[in-house]
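Exam revision sheet. Question 4 asks you to relate a sequence to its structure. Input first:
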Amino acid sequence: MKKITLAIGLYIGILTASAQSSQSTDSTNYQNRKLKVEEINFVSSYYHQNGNNSAVTGGIGTEKLTDFGNTIELRMSRWDKKARQHFFSFELGVDAYSSASSDKIDPGTISSASMTDKRIYPSLAWSINNPKKGTTFGIVGSYSTEYDYKSYGAGLNFTKTSKDNNREFGAKVTAFFDTWKVILPAELRTLPDGSFYGSGGEHDPFPVDYKPRNSFSSSFSLAQVINRRTQVLLTIDPAYQDGLLATKYQRVYFTDGTVKSEVLPDTRFKLPIGARLNYFAGNKVVVRTFYRYYQDNWGVKAHTFELETPIKMTPFLSVSPFYRYYTQTQADYFAPYMKHSLSDTYFTSDYDLSKFNSNMVGVGVRITPPHGVLGIQHWNSLELRYGHYERSNGLASDVLTLYAKFK
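Answer key, structure tokens:
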């Protein structure tokens, strides 16, 4: 099911020369036959939100939702005979959530099939780094499955670093091919010809439709080291979607009380342009800033500003307060509960497409003990991050995330 997700990390890295490239040929050849584990990363998060503008019930009603997610990544590498380093990674994620608004799709039942759900999303990636040429090329494949959709993804990425390692160009393209199970609100399942549309439940004998939704995105970036203290990154990330972009179990109420399923165009083009700046204010403080402008052909225009200031309290402990401000205009097809006209071609009461401002504040605490976390040598680092989010329309959420790295 569709749910709101919030990014709380403001991370930027500009790649430097691999230390492996300074090894002698003999030393590299000694290692290049072996596949070794580089690191294991584990992320666990808990997310909770509440509000009163549920799109399932036409822009009114509870938006209460909880999500518990876990992701583990195994990253390995080996060197080949041409002194190129290959990286292999496997990632597996599992999310489990409950949504009070999803239960309103079929309010006549004690609990609809979509009130609680889980998402499983494995992925595989391979990349090859050539230190002599300063290039990295990679491919990734992914799969995701949930109650009402399945998704297959593929991507390519390329980076080129300058000889002095002060500049890097990156390019990435990805594609996702999704199939939605088209679920309708309970009161809209009697069709004009008198037949019945299915609920999508496991034991429901009536059929439901399945529709495609394809997403294509690209990202182009240029990173530059200005001086010892300052780094910048410019990005442009065009994206295009086609297929069923409306969420058909979301109701829309019209001025005369008529109720219909959400209808939106079957294509959408998005154009985000961003800039990041890192400033190292001495040995203990880093100032990380980010700005992004966004617009699409649905009429949404948005601005995002982020600030994070990691502070090194000790050689092994850092604290990172962060803040994010976001504002957007209303989409052409949005109207609140009972404000749409029957003459409208497209209509939605999803407040994700309304005009709003939002603020998010939080803090991260990271430890990197010299002998490992809890004395476990290979437990390299542990980070705990908390963020609180508020929208001008009343939606509020909290997210707590735990990051653990083993090397």
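Marking note for examiners. The longest helix spans residues 25-31.
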